[in-house]
Amino acid sequence: MGSKVKLFFPFSLVMLIGLILPVIVMVIAGFQGMDGGFTLSNYTTIFGQNYYRMAIFNSLWISLIAGIIGLVISILGAWAITRLAERTQNILIILFNLAASFAGIPLAFSLIIVFGNAGIAKALAHTLHIGFLGNFSIYSLQGLILAYTFFEVPLGILFLYAPMKEIKKEWFEAALVLGANRSFFIKTIILPILLPNIIETFIILFANAMGTYETMYALTGNNFISIPIVIGSLIDGSLNANVPLACALATIFAAVMAILVLAGNRIINRKRK
Q1: How many helices (H) and strands (E) does the chain have?
Q2: For residues 125 and 115, is the Cβ–Cβ distance under 8 A?
Q3: H helices within 41-168, ranges in order?
Q4: Distance between the two ends of the chain, CA-based, in angstroms?
Q5: Which CATH homologous superfamily contains domain 55-226+250-272?
Q6: Which residues contact 257 (CB under 8 A, 6 or more apart)?
Q7: What does residue 32 show for φ and ψ, rounded to 5 degrees?
Q8: Which DSSP state fits 129?
Q9: Cα separation of 24 and 145, whole Å?
Q10: Any transmembrane segments, and where (predicted)?
Q11: Long-range Cβ pairs for the range 39-48 (8 Å, 24+)
């Protein structure tokens, strides 16, 4: 019993200081004005002004699109990796581990070199007369989705690779012997096994995209507003800084993620039952 307490206490202390207390302070500060008094004006401002509503909508929209695209590619990629030799799988997983951490300013800079106005892709498009490539802008919404996909896909593959590797070839062979076709096998055997992992992976990809700040800011600056961009502008230390309003936005962000996680867990529990 004593050893369990010794192990649990440091973990609980880290959770308290690093997560619980900051969340409590954030929620309380969201209901305070600049003078420290209680107010609901922060939330009325957020939901009453189009600027803040657009930031919430943009965050949800781009996170949804990037999450879905990243999930689909991750499913195909993880499945394809499991078909390779064991040594090749290990090498690719190491590379995807590195790629999953390659985000923020380095990723944005790399994409600007390739797809920027004076980038490699523009030069090739001009030389080879490739219209769609020449018209593509990394500084647009499509460019942001491309940038998000670059770090969403490796992360999704890492989460889906392990459960997909557990699927044995013998299962499909046994299903064929019993008269099942491929679509029936996927629907009744593979999908129920992988669905909880797919849902959990989508939630992680969605949260990862929604909380991204550096990549978006490096590519678009303040031209494309989102919750992280607005929060960053509200706590930058300038004369227009408004920490309580930033805390209210962060609380909305946390509430959206909590609802998504709870909904995902409910779906997963139903499927497992």
Answers
A1: 15, 0
A2: no
A3: 41-48, 50-82, 86-100, 105-115, 120-128, 131-135, 141-165
A4: 33
A5: MetI-like (1.10.3720.10)
A6: 207, 210
A7: -115, 150
A8: T
A9: 33
A10: 7-31, 51-79, 91-116, 136-163, 184-207, 243-263
A11: 42/244, 42/245, 42/247, 42/248, 43/248, 45/245, 46/245, 46/248, 46/249, 46/252
pLDDT, tens digit, for every residue of 84-140?
A: 888 999 999 998 888 887 777 888 888 888 888 777 887 787 777 776 666 778 888
So where are the chain's domains? 55-226+250-272
- Rounded to whole angstroms, the Cα distance separating 91 from 100 reads 14
Kindly report, residue by residue over 173-197, the tens digit of the pLDDT: 777 777 777 787 778 888 888 888 9
The pLDDT tens digits of the residues spanning 12-50 come to: 888 888 788 988 999 999 999 888 888 999 999 999 999
Cβ-count burial 105-130 (b if 16+ within 10 Å, e if not):
eebbeebbeebbeebebbeebeeeee
Q: Is the dihedral of CA 145, 148, 150, 154 positive or negative?
A: negative
Burial class from Cβ neighbours inside 10 Å (0-12, 13-18, 19+) for residue 55 reads: buried
| Rounded-to-integer distance, Cα 179 and Cα 237, Å | 68
Q: What is the DSSP letter of 167?
A: S
R_g (Cα) of the chain, nearest Å: 23
Residue type at position 203: I
Which residue's structure tokens are 């995209």? 209
**Could you tell me which of 205, 251, 243, 204 has the C-alpha nearest to residue 227?**
251
Please state, in angstroms and rounded to a whole number, the distance separating the CA atoms of residues 75 and 186: 13
